[in-house]
Structure formats: C-alpha cells, structure tokens
User: Fold these one by one.
Assistant:
Number 1:
Amino acid sequence: MTTHGGFEPVFCTIVPPHVLDRLAQHEDPALAGPARETLERDAYERTHRRLTTVIGAPLLEAPVVSDKPQRTIYDAKHKQDLPGKKVRSEGSDPGKDATVNRAYAGLGATFELYLNAFNRHSIDGEGLPLNASVHYDVNYDNAFWNGEQMVFGDGDGELFLDFTIPVDVIGHELTHGVTQYTANLTYFGQSGALNESISDVFGSLIKQYTLGQTAADADWLIGAGLLAPRVSGVALRSMKAPGTAYDDDALGKDPQPATMDDFVRTGSDNGGVHINSGIPNHAFYLVADALGGHAWEKAGQIWYDVLTGGEIKKDALFTDFATLTVAAAKARFGDGGEELQAVEKAWEQVGVPTTRDSST
C-alpha cells in the first residue's frame, strides 16, 4: 500500500479500547488476561501502522481494475507474524476451516456491495487486492484493518467469539480503508467519530445487502453474533437504539449516545470515537427508516456521495458532515423531495445543525 495523496491510514479495531480497558481490570484472570494481551498487541500494531506510514510501505504492482475481487486468505496459526501461510486464493473452493471461508466470503460481500451499489472497484476504487489473516495470536479479542490488510482474532471464547462471524465487522473494518482512500477523516474527536460511524453505516449496509434486507427488516446491530452466550448483550453497537447493545457485569453498559444532548467529552479512545459515533449512526438509521426500501439505494448513496465527493475536510465536525448530506440529497434527488426532508429531519432529531452558523 502507498499513501496516495498524503493519506494517513489509521489503525482501527472493532472492539473499542474502553471495553478492553474495563475487562483488563476484571478480577477474573480468564477475562482480564486476554483483554490485557489484546490491548498490548493493539498498541504494538498501532505503532507499527504509524511507522509504516512514515517510512512508506513497499510499492505494489498496480492492480488490474476488474468487476471481480482478488482475495487472499492467510492463516497466522495463532502467531503474531503477518500475513501468515496462504490458505485460500481467489477462485479456489471452500476448505474445512469455517473461519477461512467466512473471511473469504466477507471480503467478497464487501467488494460486491461497493461495486454493485456505488460502482466502486474495491476499497481504493482501483481494484486493490483484498488480503486477510485469520487465527491471529492466541485469545485475541479484536479484528482490525491495519492500512494494508484485514486481521481477525478468534476471540477468547468467554466474552468474544470468532471475529469473522459477523459480516458487518468485516465490512466495517474494510470501510476504514475506503475512508482512508477518500475523505481520510482524522481519527480524533468528532471527525474520528464520523470515521467510525461511516464504517458502521457501510458495514451494516453490507450485511443488509448480503441478506437482501430492507431497512425495516434489518436489526441495525453491529457485531451481532460476536458476543459469547454468557454476555448480557446482543452486539457491540446499535444504530437503531444507541446505548442499548449490551449491559453486562464484565463489559459494562453500552455508553453510546443517540443525540448531542448526551455527547460524551473524554480524552480516552481518541476523544471517544467509538462512543460519540452513536450520534451520526442514529441519524443514518433515521434517514434509512424514513425512506424505507433498501437502505443502500438512497440513504447509503447520500452518505457515499459525501464520503467520496471531495468537499469534506479531514477534521470535519458533525455539523459539517450533516450540512454536506443535505447538499448531497438535494443534488442527487432534488429539492423538496422525501430524501431531503428525511435527511434534514434526522439531523434535527439527533441535535446536529445542518449549517455551521446554526445554533443548537
């Protein structure tokens, strides 16, 4: 991967640091141990990502733009060396390892949504090969996009299961790559929360597209199926009802706000990027719910137009993004239509003004 146009790829994980921080302090070593090891590994990978950005990754041969993905799955064999042993390549038949098969399918589902809904060829728009490593480390409680490839842990079996299970997790992480190649939103504060929210939005759309669901059919959960049976919760996040995804003795309570009234000011998690993302997440859900049908066709198209339109600044605030979605709805669907009304009403409901000089 090269850092085209000054892009600054960030290290992004699906399980928020605040969840792992809490688990790392648990009195039960079976819960605290994997969380601490995951935090340590994440810190290393974050530093590695930063160094690779500064030094520059090796130049890769230009990919061939095609309507077919180019997927390669590697088995890390519970070690930390990436990518590991190649176990499946594009076009090969499924093997006996369900994790490998799910990763392969998830990369394909992501490619398919972006191609068929938005005419985008892979995450960079130019046919970038999609690589993933599974069975990373031991009891590793996370999945991440490191700027070059996907990496999946198997979970600890106590709180988290195999991270290839939810296809929206795969779509979420790969969408960080899309953002990396387009808006390149700074991973801090409100712009970081927008970065996270965009990944949730398109991760959910990838799941809905794969299942053939309408907005009314969808559960609007991120990471459903990831939590182990002992956990009191249904997913990592809920776009329909932020703050309700889990309420568990070990994990704590889902801290996401649904509106600006409950915006969380914190110095942790890069200024609460995984927390305050609940606000733009909820706005998208409200737009999709109001418009009905397949959410990628209208609501998703508006969000994609903003992400790729070149007008959003790297340090955009919620109100900047909201204002651009209003403009995008007008440009694509016309002034005065249901699409524009849905967008304006959604941002109003979550307390985000759609012009910079508006008052909250």
Number 2:
Amino acid sequence: MEKVLATDNDKIKEVIKNSKQYELQIIYTQIVRDKGKITFKDYTYNLDASNYYYPASTIKFPIAILALEKLNTIENTSVNNIYTIEGNSEKLKFADEITKVFAVSDNVASSNLFEFTGFDYINQKMKEKGLEPFRISHRLSGSEPSNPLVKSVTLYKDNGSIEVFPSKLNEKSAPLKLNNLIKGTGFIKDDQLVNEPFDFSKKNYFPLKTLHNTLKRIVFPEAFNESERFKITDKEREFILFSMQNLPRNAGYNPKEYYDSYCKFFMFGDTKNQIPDHIKIYNKIGQAYGTMTETAYIIDTENKVEFMLSATILVNKDGIFNDGVYEYDSVSIPFFAALGRELYAKSKM
C-alpha cells in the first residue's frame, strides 16, 4: 500500500497530498489460498468507521442480497418470481431488478427490491451477520424516501399461488453521532442556495470496512462461520456474482451510453474501451453528493491475479452540496482507475 500510494502517478499523488480534504479511505486485500483454505491479508489507509461518508448506491448491495435471502425463506419461489407493489400495477421480476442494480446502479430498481425487505429486516440481518456498524434509513428514490412505512407486496409463486405481504411500519432511525456529519458551506434545496453546511446525520451509514466485509462474505462465504454468511442458495449466490461482474452491453444496454466502465471505476474508469474478457470485476459503486465509493473483487484468469479493493473519496471543491458540481471526472475517477492499475500491477508481481 505504501509503495502504491508513493507512486509518481500524478492522479494518485494529487489525492494523497490532500487526503484529508478528500476524506480518502482505502482497503486492499490479498487473497491467501492454502490447501483449499481461504484467508485474507488486509492493508488499509485512513480507515475509520467513525469518520462519516455518504455511501450512496453501495447501499444497494445488501438490499439486493437480502431481498434474495428473504425470498429464500418462502416456499415455491425463485429469483424469477414476479411481484407487484401497492399502488403500482407494474409486474416486477426479482432477477430483472437485481440485474439493473448492478449493471447500471438503477435507483428505482433498488427501491422496488427494498419495499419487499424494509428497513428493519435489512438492519437486523446485517447485525446478525456481524456486518456492523451499518444502518439504512432511506430509499434512493421516491417522493418520501425516509418514510418508515413500507408498502404491501403481492408475490406470485411458482406453484401458481399468491401471497400478500402487508405494509409495515418500520422503526424510525435516530440521527447518527459520528465525525464529519456536517459538511461543506452550503447546499441546494428547491433550486435555492442555503448558506449552511449540509447535515448527513439522517442519511444511510455503510462504512468502508462493513462494505468490504460484505463483499468478502458474498465472494468467499466458506471463509466465514455459518452465522456470518448470507442465507442464500448456491444458485442465488451465483446469480448475484454474475450480476456484479456483468457488463451493461451484456445486460441489454446501449454500449455507447453504458460503456463497460460505466459502473466499474477501478482500473478502467478513465477509459470507454472494452474491458478484456480475462479480467472480471465483481463490484458495486456509489456516487452522490461528491462522494465516490467502490468495492470490488478483481480477478485476471490469464495472469493469475486476484485481490479485493474498496475506497471512498469526496470531491466537492466549491463546498456546495446537491448542486451537481463535483470533480468526479477530473479527480475521483482518474484516481480510482490509477489506484486499481497500480495495485493490479503489484498483485501481478
């Protein structure tokens, strides 16, 4: 980690020189294979769960997995089941919504899955698996994202029967008490500038170590105790992993608009070229309010390289939140791409 961050690469040097300003945190993991047993060697930079960052779409990762975990507790169901949500006649398929979540990080798809699980279920299941600290307090779409009332869901089962899950009032989240919850100098609300720092205390909380450990459990469940694993079938886990590495062009999206690196920033974020077939990236990204986060398991079958990498960075030079003016293209994406390539090169050695 020290060698990589001490590189002469300008994209990395600029961020490391101002790492406090960028609220940078990194975890790199070596995968150690010994006689069929998997262990991990973690290397970290500025890792601190008490320093808050906004997790954005990375919260969709446990939403997708736990929707399948809940589905797996219901007889005569599969990932291909159809369901509808109260107030919406659209017929949704679990497989399709999960595909959208990973291929293009679709907000509506994640909210559709969320109505099936709800706040309490996700928070409790993450706690049971030792994936803490963590809390989900709001959806990523809709007019009332923090409404603790989840809508009723009608599930159409494989045997032709129908089961209705009633609406449920979930526990309301208390404000967070962490460092760096109050950020910037202003924010946009109703198209007007409010000259006050932006308060993140009621937002979702998914610190980097918890995110990284979620990835470990889905890629290498055998490295964890039974109680720490997600309760999904092998086929369901394979579907999650396939969806994580699947590229937009293979999921039916226009490759000119949704190029290979659209949701894969490590190694390839600064190019629109196709990712080589021998490199697979099982990942989830998040990008909002100037914060960019990614967790990824990267494997090169041709060169026998594999590692895990998670990082988060904040780019908001003007200090104004919700104005859409962030340095994603000039700072964070080039940094993530360069960081991924440097660690790939070191892993290859």
Number 3:
Amino acid sequence: MDLDVFVSAHRAEWDRLEALLRRRGRLTGTEADELVALYQRAATHLSLIRSSAPDPQLTGRLSQLVARARSTMTGTRRASWRDVTRFLLEGFPAAVYRARHWWVPTAVVCTVVAALLGWWIGTHPEVQSTIAAPSELRQLTRPGGEYETYYSSHPAAAFAAQVWTNNAQAAAMCLVLGVFLGLPVLWILFENMLNLGVGIGLMSSAGRLDTFLGLVLPHGLLELTAVFVAAGTGLRLGWTLIDPGPRTRRTALAEEGRAAVGMAIGLALVLLVSGAIEGFVTPSGLPTWARIGIGIVAELAFLAYVYVLGGRAVRTGETGDVVADERSAGVPTAA
C-alpha cells in the first residue's frame, strides 16, 4: 500500500468525521447517518493501515477518531439502582442457576471426599501422628482447645471481616483461575476439603465430632456452598476453553467470563452473610440447635433464591451476562 496516496484519498473523510464530532449541538438525522457511515469507513481504514502499512502517527490519530466516534454513537451510560436490582433479582441468581450442573456435582464430590478424609484420619492414629505431636493434637481437640477458641479469639466484627475477605478471595480465585483448564480450581478445592477432613478426623478421634459440627455447620453450609458455586463456575469456564459449543471460542469465553465476574460480586455478598454468621453466631452462647438452625435457614434461603428467582429469570432468557447494549461491538473489517 502506498501510504501517501491512501492518506490523500481519505483525508477529507477523516476531517469531515472530526468536524462532526466537534459539533456541540445535536446532529440532524442526515448528519447522524453520515457520522455512522464515516465511522465505519474510518474503522476499516484503521484496520487496513494496521495490517498493511503500520504508521504510528496515523494509527494513533485514526484510533482516537474511531474511539470518539463510537463513544458519540453509543453514548455513555451510568449505573443506576435499576441495574443493582436487576443484578440481584435476575442476573446473579440466573448465573448461579445456569451453573448448577457444575457446582452441585462439585459439592457432592467434595463432601464425600471430606468425609472420607475425616474417616481415614480419625481411624488411623499413624496418620494423626504425621499431622502433629500427640500433645499438640490434645491442645487442638480438648474442651476449650484451639478448635473451639478459634471462633472467639478475636472481636466478632474484626473476625467476620477477616473471614469474609479470605473467603471472597478464595471464591474469586476459583472463578478467575478456572480459565487455566480448571486445574488450579481442583487444587483449591482439595486444600479446603483436606482442612475440613483433618478437623473432622481429629475431633472424631477425640469423641467430640458433635462439638466440631456444631461450630462448623452454622456458617459452613452457606460458606461452602458459595465456594462450590465459585469452583463449579471456574471449572465450567475451563471446559468452555476446551469445548465452546456452537459459539466461537472467543465469544464463549467472553460471555462466560463476564458472567463469572458478575458472579464474583454476588458471591462476595453471600460470603458477607456467612462471615457475619461465623463472627457473631458461631461463637455465641446460643444452643447448638439454634446456631445450626440459623445456618440451615441461611442455606435454604440461598437455594430458594437461586432456584426460584434464578430459574424464573433463565426461563425468560436471562443468562447472567451483561445486557446486549453493554457488550463489545465488533469493528468492521470491510468497506
């Protein structure tokens, strides 16, 4: 391509587009149609220059021109309370509902793994001896030991905030790292189930499994469900990279990735609730049945939220992705 000839042939179009963009008043219908046509041609010219005769100065000018034109046509949009309401009542529960075929099996498998690990550790003293010395194990599992005082060792508000932050980070890692074929997600899940299995095994060997479950279940039901949802979504994102289905791989990853980012925000709110339960309810003086009852109510409320609101939203076409006019538009490649 002769760059000088190309610039001479199209400079007038670029200048006209820039003049329209500088207009402070509203464009007439004819001028608006002209702006759209000039934007499409300028985008095509930018694509041609980048591929055939890259020139930094010209590329910079056209990139800025195309970006300004696109912003003028699409306008700017501010988030509103309507967006928040839509996200909480439709987008987030729909995304979780759509991912149920991934996170429900994940929850079942992980629960079985944690139970098996707990049984193995609890019935094999030689395994316990590799975890810690006998005196240290007694310190962990005795009445008033570290397993019990862990939940009341810090002020409730600070402890709840710390737990929420840690769990939200773990959930976000599951969602983001899923793109690496889901392998990091499997490791995060195994670490969590191993920690849970160790607690089950050690406390059961000390004859205090009921105490341990009374401490874990109030917040653990909702907390682990949120982790399973994040992990299942991360695994689905990794599988999308392998099998995007009828969509192109780029489109599939973009759609599922945007839904995963939204899910990270929603799960942070869910984990905020579980963190509050862990900080204020778990170490409270309430009877064990009352503490566990609060955890069950929170878990059932979340599942109803997902299956009722999420199922209804999915049946109306909601996917958890951003609305259509907020998705990236393709740049024209032909005049």
